[in-house]
Amino acid sequence: xxxxxxxxxxxxxxxxxxxxxxxxxxxTLARHPSETDERMMxxxxxxxxxxHKLQTVCGGDATLGFGAGLCDPDDPDVLLRxxxxxxxxxxxxxxxxxxxxxxxxxxxxxxxxxxxxxxxEIWWRGIESKLARAERLQVYRVPAAGxxxxxxxxxxxxxxQATIQEGALMLGNSQHHVDIEPLRWK
Length: 186
Prior knowledge:
The protein is of the alpha/beta class. The chain has helices at about 35-50, 55, 100-105, 120-125, 145-150; strands at about 5-15, 20-30, 60-65, 80, 85-95, 110-115, 135-140, 155-165, 170, 175-180, 185. Strand 5, helix 3 (about 100-105) and strand 6 (about 110-115) form a beta-alpha-beta unit. Helix 1 crosses helix 5.
């Protein structure tokens, strides 16, 4: 018998000072049985970092949410789709395959990848030349320590505040907060 995903609910208040975006998001996250709290929370952090695109890219006429993720390798971790059906942002976390990223670049206006973990730098050195021509791709490195700290915020029912200023994300609840400053590799 297959294991089922665990459902998490999150109320996320985003204050993106860099882009003048302030909004509350009510989200449902399904954590695949093989997914860690760290990866699930990285998906949430990636959504928070890009939530402003609902306004800045789509003028409010779009949906931003989680894809099927690990359940479907052809679906992004986070997806911004406008109401015409056009994929405006395809967002992945972790260390994606170069072929999957290039395929995503053909489907979306922009593809963002947030690499994290202790092996991310080794992964990037091995894949960087294969992705050099992908104009629609942006790759960010999230420090491994920050990504690990995100797991402490994971609860079945979460109330989180995300503040983005000067490219850095401060994500927290009433007891803990995590500071993450993604470094752009590409």
